[in-house]
Specification:
A hairpin with a 4-residue loop joins β9 and β10. The chain contains 24 helices and twelve strands. α14 packs antiparallel against α15. Strands 1-10-9-2-3-6-5-4 form an eight-stranded mixed beta sheet. Strands 7-8 form a two-stranded antiparallel ribbon. It has 482 residues and is of the alpha+beta class. The chain has four domains: 158 residues, Beta Polymerase, domain 2; 87 residues, Orthogonal Bundle (cca-adding enzyme, domain 2), CATH 1.10.3090.10; 163 residues, Hypothetical protein af1432, CATH 1.10.3210; 60 residues. The relative contact order is 0.06. The termini are far apart.
C-alpha cells in the first residue's frame, strides 16, 4: 500500500541547515529518508518558528550504510555517528555546533514481531517500505512521515485528520497495539493531556482489557511517562484522570485513589483526590518535581480522617503531612526515583502546612528557614506548592496576601545575613575541642546545635567569645542534669 501524499510545506521559514544536510546526504546516495514521529506532529501543530524538539528520521538505508555515509565527516566538520540502538536499526548522528552537540536519531525501516514481555519485540526485521515501518507505530498522529525536499506529508492512517480533530487513536486494532507494548496505554493518557486531546472511544475501551500487559512495564518507564506528563501538560490532572478511569493508576499509585470521593471540610470545594490533582495543575510545569509533591501533598488525609473518625475526634486530618510523607516515600521508591528527588518531595510534603501569623518573631522565622538550611531554591518551591494548594482548594481566602507578607518577612531576615545552620556560626568543632579540652564525641555536635538555637533567637550572639560563653553554660547545664 502506498501512503497518501499531501502537499504541505512544514518549513515555510526555510529548511534548517542540519535537516537539509542530512536529507541531502541520503538522497544523493539514492536512499529514501523521511522525518517521522513527534517532530512531524509538532511542525503541523506549532509551525517552525520556535523549534525546541528533537528530530527523528526513518530511512531505507541499513545501519551499516548510515554509518558509512558519515564515516569521513568527523575529521572535517565535527560530525559523527553513535550506534545507540543498532540492534533495532537506530543510529544517532551527532553534529557539533560550537560547544553544543545536537543528536538526530536515524532508524532503518523496520517491522516488529512477537512481543513476549509486553514491551520489547522478540524479533525486529528491516522492512522494505515506509508503509511497513509506519504501520508498527503507536498512534496515527505519530505515524506520519514528511518528505523534506518533496514537501509532501505521507499519512497512511489518517493522522492529519485525527490531529485536526484533536484525537488520540491507535494505528490499526487498539488491543493489538496495546498488547504489543504495555507502555502505549500510559502514553495515550499522557499525550492526550499534553496536547489536550481526547482518546478515541475504541482506543480508550481497549485499555482496561490490556492492563495485564501494562503491569509488565518496568516502574522506571512508568516514572519517565509520569514526569513527561508533569513537565509537558498544562493540566496533568487530565492524564491522571484518564489513568484512573481506565484502571492504570491503581497499578503504580493506588494510594492516590484513597482520597477519591473522600470529602474534606468547609475550606475545600473538592474531595481529597481532586484537590491533589488541581494543586498539581496550579504549580508551574517548569517544576515537575514540585508538581509531583503537589500531587501527593495531601495523600495522607484519607488515612488521617479515617483514624480521627474511628477515635471520635471528628472530621479532621491531624498529622496528615507526616502520614503523607511516609506514603510518598513508599510510592517514589516503587517508581525508582533517586534518593535526592525523594528527599525533596518528602520535605515539601512535610513542610507545606506551615502557618504564619504577624506574631511570629524573627527567631521563629529563622527557625522556619533552619528546617531546610535556608535553601532559597527550596523556599521558592515550597511557596509554589503552597500557592498551588490554595488554588487547588477551589475557595477564595486571604492566603495569597498572608504568603506575600511572609515572603517579605523572610527576605528581610535573609538580607540580615544571620546564621541559619551550624556552619554559619563563628566557631567550629575544633575551636570547641581546643577551648574546652574535649575529645571528638557527640557532645561537640550537641553543643553546636545548642549555640545555633541561641543565635537563631539573638543573632548578635554569633561571635566567638559569646559562643564560648554559651558553650560553657551548655556544659554546666549538662553536668547538673547528670
Amino acid at each position: 500500500m502506498k501512503p497518501e501524499s499531501i502537499k504541505i510545506d512544514l518549513f515555510p521559514s526555510g529548511i534548517p541547515e542540519d535537516i537539509a544536510y542530512i536529507v541531502k546526504k541520503f538522497t544523493d546516495s539514492n536512499y529514501e529518508i523521511f522525518l517521522v514521529g513527534g517532530a512531524v506532529r509538532n511542525l503541523i501543530t506549532y509551525g517552525d518558528k520556535n523549534i525546541d524538539w528533537d528530530f527523528d528520521f526513518t530511512t531505507s538505508a541499513t545501519p551499516d550504510e548510515v554509518i558509512s555515509l558519515f564515516k569521513n565527516e568527523g575529521k572535517k566538520s565535527k560530525i559523527f555517528t553513535v550506534p545507540t540502538g543498532i540492534q533495532h536499526g537506530t543510529v544517532s548522528l551527532v553534529i557539533k555546533h560550537g560547544d553544543k552537540y545536537v543528536n538526530y536519531e536515524i532508524t532503518t525501516y523496520r517491522i516488529e514481531r512477537n512481543y513476549e514481555d509486553g514491551r520489547h519485540p522478540k524479533e525486529v526485521k528491516f522492512a522494505t517500505s515506509l508503509y511497513e515501518d509506519l504501520s508498527r507505530r503507536d498512534f496515527t498522529i505519530n505515524a506520519m512521515a514528511y518528505d523534506v525536499f518533496g514537501r509532501c506529508l505521507l499519512d497512511p492512517f489518517g493522522g492529519l485528520k485525527d490531529l485536526k480533530n484533536r484525537l488520540i487513536r491507535t494505528v490499526g486494532n487498539p488491543l493489538e497495539r496495546f498488547n504489543e507494548d504495555g507502555l502505549r496505554p500510559i502514553r495515550a493518557c499522557r499525550i492526550a493531556a499534553q496536547l489536550n486531546f481526547e482518546i478515541d472511544k475504541d482506543t480508550f475501551n481497549a485499555i482496561p482489557i490490556a492492563l495485564d500487559v501494562v503491569k509488565k512495564v518496568s516502574m522506571e518507564r512508568i516514572k519517565d511517562e509520569l514526569m513527561k506528563l508533569l513537565s509537558k501538560a498544562d493540566k496533568p490532572s487530565k492524564g491522571i484522570e484518564l489513568m484512573r478511569d481506565s484502571g492504570i493508576l491503581e497499578i503504580f499509585m493506588p494510594e492516590l485513589l484513597e482520597g477519591y470521593k473522600v470529602e474534606q471540610n468547609e475550606f475545600h470545594r473538592y474531595d481529597i483526590y481532586y484537590h491533589n490533582l488541581y494543586t498539581c495543575d496550579a504549580i508551574p510545569k517548569s517544576k515537575p518535581l514540585v508538581r509531583l509533591a503537589g500531587l501527593l501533598h495531601d495523600i495522607g488525609k484519607a488515612r488521617a480522617k479515617k483514624y480521627a473518625l474511628e477515635h471520635g475526634i471528628g472530621n479532621v486530618f491531624y498529622n496528615h503531612e507526616v502520614i503523607g510523607e511516609r506514603m510518598a516515600e513508599k510510592i517514589l521508591k516503587r517508581l525508582k526515583f533517586s534518593n535526592a528527588e525523594i528527599t525533596t518531595v518528602k520535605m515539601l510534603i512535610r513542610l507545606h502546612m506551615f502557618y504564619y501569623t504577624d506574631e511570629w518573631t524573627d527567631g521563629a522565622v529563622r527557625r522556619f528557614l533552619r528546617k531546610f538550611d535556608g535553601d532559597l531554591k527550596f523556599l521558592e518551591d515550597l511557596f509554589d506548592l503552597r500557592k498551588g494548594d490554595r488554588i487547588g482548594s477551589g475557595m477564595k481566602n486571604r492566603e495569597a496576601e498572608i504568603l506575600e507578607k511572609f515572603n517579605k518577612r523572610i527576605q528581610k531576615v535573609i538580607e540580615e545575613d544571620n546564621a541559619l545552620k551550624v556552619t554559619d556560626l563563628d566557631i567550629d568543632g575544633y575551636d570547641i575541642m581546643n577551648y574546652f579540652n574535649l575529645k571528638p564525641s557527640r557532645i561537640i555536635g550537641e553543643m553546636l546545635e545548642f549555640m545555633l538555637q541561641k543565635v537563631l533567637d539573638d543573632p548578635s550572639l554569633n561571635k566567638k567569645e559569646e559562643l564560648l560563653k554559651i558553650g560553657k553554660a551548655f556544659l554546666e547545664e549538662r553536668k547538673n542534669s547528670n
